[in-house]
Amino acid sequence: MKNGMAECAVCHSKLVSPTVKTISRAYDRHRSKISSKQRALNVLLVVGDCMLVGLQPVLVFMSKVDGKFKFSPVSVNFLTEATKVVFAIIMLLIQARHQKVGEKPLLSISTFVQAARNNVLLAVPALLYAINNYLKFIMQLYFNPATVKMLSNLKVLVIAVLLKFIMKRRFSIIQWEALALLLIGISINQLRSLPEGTTSLALPVTTIAYIYTLIFVTVPSMASVFNEYALKSQYDTSIYLQNLFLYGYGAIFNFLAILGIAVFKGPGSLDIFEGHSKATMLLIINNAAQGILSSFFFKYADTILKKYSSTVATIFTGIASALLFGHTLTVNFLLGISVVFISMHQFFSPLSKVKDDQQNGTLELIDVRENHSSKDSSFVNMAAGANEEASHRVGPDERQPLLPR
């Protein structure tokens, strides 16, 4: 990209580089024409996310010994990022072997350098994720696994606000009401969830816990929005190449944190495998798989869908927590879950989208030519064709598949 212009990788024609607003408009148009394959992909993403996200706090709880961690949480985060880097490299090698003749090689130095420059924004969510991954362990010291999962759902409202102001995403009144219902459901579940009289750092546990909660909600919400923007704004870049940059930045930030800890605690803390067990190894694998799946959410689906799917994982977490650790499924928990499901149904209901169209007039009128030519076009062309002033067209035999081969 140069001087606000982007060059098509297929025919080398010049395009006006899409802005945040035009990408948002293009996404609105795409969302109103989701194909059956896209719906199937969304279902698979949600099911996989529910299993992985729901299991994560349980594994963290199993990793504690006498209520404490015998290992450094930063070491777990570093090993998780390293695992994801290895996975991205393997998938890049597989994808490169299946490239068609004439396509630009994925593993060439020029491709790598250009992609690194275009995706430098991924360093921002990588740093925020590094902070958030450490906060996950801190939260486990104050809440049981089911409550941690419910608290994380507060991110949905923060993400919606960030999407509105940063990516110019639009939501109907019904959808905002659905988000309010979500907060009500979470609040119901939080009632009397904290032990009374316990202190930490000379502060009541409720005070320090709510401070952590505020940071725990804000930091990953910003990371998710920046991650979605960074991935979608460079849509023609292989997702595995983007993941390599994202996870590489994450591994670097966590390694710097390990070095910082070693400065204060001594060289002995450099042993990243100290205090680990089978539970922590499973936790690393689960966190890595969860991060990889999240990248597909942000690039091919939607951040709101990702966070709403995490609410479904609350049921799995709550039941597993009750069966494995004897935590009680209270009436508050059951009522809160019921309200959350009502919120989900309301937010994704076709009625909410119809109202949104009526309130905003029309979701950015598309000219007749685009209507005829984009009926079977895939979501992969969204970012490159987002700007309404662009006149570029890609032939039917040159379109890319939804997911990389």
From TrEMBL:
Residues 386-405 are annotated as: Disordered. It is a multi-pass membrane protein. GO terms for cellular component: Golgi membrane. It is found in: Membrane. SUPFAM superfamilies: Multidrug resistance efflux transporter EmrE. Keywords: Membrane, Transmembrane, Transmembrane helix. The keyword Membrane applies. GO terms for molecular function: pyrimidine nucleotide-sugar transmembrane transporter activity. The chain crosses the membrane at residues 40-62, 74-94, 201-223, 244-264, 279-301. It holds the Pfam family Nuc_sug_transp. Residues 389-405 have a biased composition (Basic and acidic residues). Belongs to the nucleotide-sugar transporter family. CMP-Sialate:CMP antiporter (TC 2.A.7.12) subfamily. This is CMP-sialic acid transporter 3. It comes from Anisodus acutangulus.
